[in-house]
Write a structure and sequence with these properties.
The chain is 14% helix and 37% strand. With 125 residues, it is mainly β. It has a single domain (8-114), classed as RNA polymerase II/Efflux pump adaptor protein, barrel-sandwich hybrid domain (OB fold (Dihydrolipoamide Acetyltransferase, E2P)), CATH 2.40.50.100. The strands form 2 sheets. A 6-stranded antiparallel sheet has the order 1-2-3-9-8-5. Strands 4-6-7 form a 3-stranded antiparallel sheet. A hairpin with a 3-residue loop joins β6 (57-63) and β7 (67-71). The chain is globular, with a radius of gyration of 13 Å. One of its GO terms (biological process) is glycine decarboxylation via glycine cleavage system.
């Protein structure tokens, strides 16, 4: 399992590709989380223009095993959502760090995040 070194990671298994206030960044879930969930069959994402808050639910991922909240690693305004996931939610399983991104956010505040090495150590990867 590889983790992009240039991403930051939350304790709730979300990744973000930039952790700078003022930046626009993509958010997704890690392959560790996707593998734990099993086959993802549905995704409920925030709408463009919604405000997301650090540590608050920004949507849900439904798999054949369970329904799990997507927790925002930052506070900000949603600027885009990955429309492709409506017809192909399994993309999160096959490509969680690229085509399986969930939403994009204009960051106003950054929550507690980890480096790839810290996330890997915390999760025994």
């Amino acid at each position: 399992m590889s983790l992009p070194e240039n991403f930051s990671y939350s304790a709730d298994h979300e990744w973000i590709d930039s952790a700078e206030v003022g930046a626009t960044a993509k958010v997704g879930i890690t392959d560790f989380a996707a593998n734990a969930l099993g086959e993802i069959v549905y995704v409920d994402l925030p709408a463009v223009g919604d405000t997301v808050e650090i540590g608050e639910s920004a949507g849900e991922v439904e798999s054949t095993k369970s329904v799990s909240d997507i927790f925002s690693p930052v506070t900000g305004t949603v600027t885009a959502v990955n429309e492709e996931l409506a017809d192909a939610p399994e993309t999160i399983n096959s490509d969680p760090f690229d085509a399986g991104w969930l939403f994009e956010v204009q960051i106003t505040e950054v929550g507690p995040l980890m480096t790839a090495a810290e996330y890997a150590e915390k999760n025994g990867l």
